[in-house]
Design brief:
Length: about 400
């Protein structure tokens, strides 16, 4: 592949090309960080204005009924259900990923009361690890966190494991687990499977129901574009809903919150995993954001995501050879929706790229990460981003002092 017209042709033939119109995107820049914070979908500002000015502004507290605020956690959950292959009444939107993970892991331990082990991989997203460890501490000394390298997971599953808890796509390397096969392996040992879909929901079909996944959580502000701090979603397979218990038994998970009863009775379905009052502004933003997925074929989304990644890697190999970059993500089906590269000066290189309008991010210790959101990225964006990366490396401009200063958030 030699010239940019190849990328232009791919864009012309792209069945998802029109979806780009559904977003506000930076003018003249290339946004490759939608796996960390998705851009603003065009449907969001008018929706937020309506909620502020009409619903909250005029109808005030009656909006809980009149505008269905109270139903939003379940209603937005139904929209996400299609994106993750869940059935009706299996997904609800509430709290953050960290909190939902805590709730579902605690429920999983109670669903397998004779077992004492949570199995996860050696280097997951840190919050997943912190929450899991702390939960096990609370449960007592006989409980154990077993951590192994990804390829050792099947062998580490035995009849002591209550739940296999994994991130579907690794946030550093972009490596994607075989969700169906590992879920099956967990079930063969009588363990439950819990998946963190933070880096896959909204970028590919997931098929939770088809794979008989037991429990899952996922992020609202990454590929789902729900906005900074958007609430996350959780999934509980129908077969577990009667028995699974929420350790944070808040009033909105009660069967009848407005009975104000002193005894707790969980709601019948997945709604029992709600806790407190839902954040309506954030939920409304996420609800409107999900309109960007309307009519989108998820298989097509995945196909494009892989093709964007393939083009990115191909161009890096051709244009950035000999610059000390190493490819840190898998090729083909084993890759999620991002490309990861490795360089010892990764942080400064990413900063220099951002100064040129190409926004990726850096993950310690040495990962340059580029999220490829297939709903709004074009093949020419990928093409041009790699040209900018080459320019940064060739010029050595990343060595400038200003690119070494680190903010609190990387
Ligand atoms: C982004 C992400 C989170 C975020 O957790 P919050 O509690 O919502 O901040 C958790 N886990 C993984 C794997 C993530 O990628």
């Amino acid at each position: 592949m030699l010239d940019r017209s190849v990328a232009e042709a791919l864009d012309r033939d792209d069945p998802l090309a029109l979806c780009r119109e559904r977003f506000h995107l930076p003018v003249g820049g290339i946004y490759l960080d939608g796996n960390s914070l998705g851009p603003v979908p065009r449907a969001v500002p008018p929706r937020l204005r309506r909620v502020l000015e009409e619903e909250w502004g005029k109808d005030l507290i009656s909006s809980w009924n009149r505008h269905g605020w109270i139903d939003l956690p379940r209603q937005v959950g139904e929209k996400i259900a299609r994106l993750v292959g869940a059935g009706a009444g299996e997904v609800v939107v509430t709290d953050s990923v960290s909190i939902n993970l805590f709730k579902l892991l605690a429920a999983a331990l109670e669903l397998r009361p004779e077992r004492r082990v949570i199995l996860c991989e050696s280097n997951p997203f840190p919050t997943d690890l912190y929450v899991t460890r702390r939960l096990l501490e609370l449960r007592g000394e006989s409980f154990e966190l077993r951590q192994v390298e990804p390829e050792e997971l099947p062998a580490a599953l035995d009849r002591d494991v209550a739940v296999l808890s994994l991130c579907h796509v690794d946030f550093r390397t972009g490596r994607r687990h075989d969700l169906a096969a590992l879920t099956r392996a967990a079930h063969e040992q009588g363990a439950l499977a819990l998946w963190d879909l933070s880096h896959s929901a909204g970028a590919m079909p997931i098929g939770l129901e088809a794979a008989q996944v037991d429990l899952a959580v996922g992020c609202g502000y990454k590929f789902l574009n729900g906005g900074p701090g958007a609430p996350s979603f959780l999934y509980v397979a129908r077969c577990h809903q009667q028995k699974a218990r929420n350790p944070l038994a808040g009033w909105l998970g009660h069967r009848d919150p407005f009975a104000f009863a002193s005894g707790y009775e969980p709601a019948p379905g997945v709604g029992r995993f709600l806790c407190g009052t839902p954040p309506i502004l954030s939920l409304a933003a996420l609800d409107a954001a999900l309109e960007a997925f309307e009519g989108v074929d998820l298989a097509e989304l995945r196909r494009k995501s892989l093709a964007l990644g393939e083009l990115f890697l191909e161009r890096v190999k051709e244009r950035c050879a000999g610059q000390g970059l190493e490819i840190a993500c898998p090729e083909g089906e084993e890759r999620g929706s991002q490309v990861s590269l490795r360089h010892e000066a990764g942080y400064a290189i990413v900063q220099a790229l951002i100064a040129r309008g190409v926004v990726g991010d850096f993950r310690a210790p040495d990962i340059l990460r580029f999220g490829l959101a297939p709903l709004y990225l074009r093949y020419i964006d990928v093409w041009d981003a790699v040209e900018q990366l080459r320019a940064v490396l060739e010029s050595g401009e990343w060595r400038e002092e200003r690119f070494l200063r680190r903010g609190v958030v990387t």
